[in-house]
Amino acid sequence: MTPRRPVDTGDPDRLYTVTGGRSRVDDDSFDLVTLIVSECEPTAGMQSEHVRILELCRHPTAVVEVSAELRLPVTVVRILLGDLLATGRITARHPRAARSAELPDSALLKEVLLGLRNL
Amino acid sequence: MDSATSELPARTPLADAAETGLKIVIVGGFGVGKTTLVRSVSEIRPLNTEEVMTQAGIGVDETAGLTTKTTTTVAFDFGRISLNDRMVLYLFGAPGQERFWFLWDRLFSGTLGAVVLVDTRRMSESWYAIDRLEHHRTPFVVAVNRFDDDVSAFSLAEIRQALSLPDHVPLIDCDARVRSSGKSVLINLVDHLYELAMAREMTP
């Protein structure tokens, strides 16, 4: 495993610049395990973090993986993804079970069990 | 050898049909083997990231009498298991300390369930985690990581008593280094969740 390097390097300017000064998203539209898929190729002049996200997400990639790969806190990644989603450059596949007080149903769990037993 | 010593691949792409992400959280004190357990069952080398939250003076890292902005940073590891072409399970290894629970809803709402990993030499560290999971109404199992030098060898009954663990919460032994053992812990948890779901669905 790669040694743990802090994501938050104690340099607030860096995170401030990446998000254009925004520190929060209005909604919690991206769960840690929401899968992100690029809908276009990066274009010239695009912010470098947006470019990296579009490259990473050519195949479905969870928000938390984007965060780990970009070495940016999840909050910051949510803001960047919000930009891309608003302009139609990515799509988001939301988890069924998330953001709900409801516990998962037995049919879903049965599928999970099957998957684990087949490992 | 059925152990996690072989090197895992770096992050590999998911199947293009992947559409449903699922979460299971492994909670425990420092050095109890959370990352080891994640690594033993993950299809990728565990990755880590952080969540940072700035909050105006709420009782976290409380400085007596001062209402200043507080930044809470929680680091966590994660691994991944593709269950089939459509479903992918993410395993999060998370510290049990107080500031972590402050971010629980933000990070782990909608989680299927949790595994509390216990080291019998430091059982008191698990009390807080168990209390918090009950508070968040997150179903969980407790897995005792039997280290080689675990000479105390408490029985599961003794451990259940020490943790004041209710009878309905599954308690199992494991060796976090061994893939089949880690897999069995996850199956135990999902079996437990399945039984809870069935009981709920049978109730009109």
UniProtKB/TrEMBL annotation, chain A:
<feature type="compositionally biased region" description="Basic and acidic residues">
    <location>
        <begin position="1"/>
        <end position="14"/>
    </location>
</feature>
<dbReference type="Pfam" id="PF05331">
    <property type="entry name" value="DUF742"/>
</dbReference>
<feature type="region of interest" description="Disordered">
    <location>
        <begin position="1"/>
        <end position="20"/>
    </location>
</feature>
<protein>
    <recommendedName>
        <fullName>DUF742 domain-containing protein</fullName>
    </recommendedName>
</protein>
<dbReference type="InterPro" id="IPR007995">
    <property type="entry name" value="DUF742"/>
</dbReference>
UniProtKB/TrEMBL annotation, chain B:
<dbReference type="InterPro" id="IPR052705">
    <property type="entry name" value="Gliding_Motility_GTPase"/>
</dbReference>
<dbReference type="InterPro" id="IPR027417">
    <property type="entry name" value="P-loop_NTPase"/>
</dbReference>
<keyword id="KW-0378">Hydrolase</keyword>
<dbReference type="Pfam" id="PF03029">
    <property type="entry name" value="ATP_bind_1"/>
</dbReference>
<dbReference type="InterPro" id="IPR004130">
    <property type="entry name" value="Gpn"/>
</dbReference>
<dbReference type="GO" id="GO:0005524">
    <property type="term" value="F:ATP binding"/>
</dbReference>
<keyword id="KW-0067">ATP-binding</keyword>
<keyword id="KW-0547">Nucleotide-binding</keyword>
<dbReference type="GO" id="GO:0005525">
    <property type="term" value="F:GTP binding"/>
</dbReference>
<comment type="similarity">
    <text>Belongs to the GPN-loop GTPase family.</text>
</comment>
<dbReference type="GO" id="GO:0016787">
    <property type="term" value="F:hydrolase activity"/>
</dbReference>
<keyword id="KW-0342">GTP-binding</keyword>
<protein>
    <submittedName>
        <fullName>ATP-binding protein</fullName>
    </submittedName>
</protein>
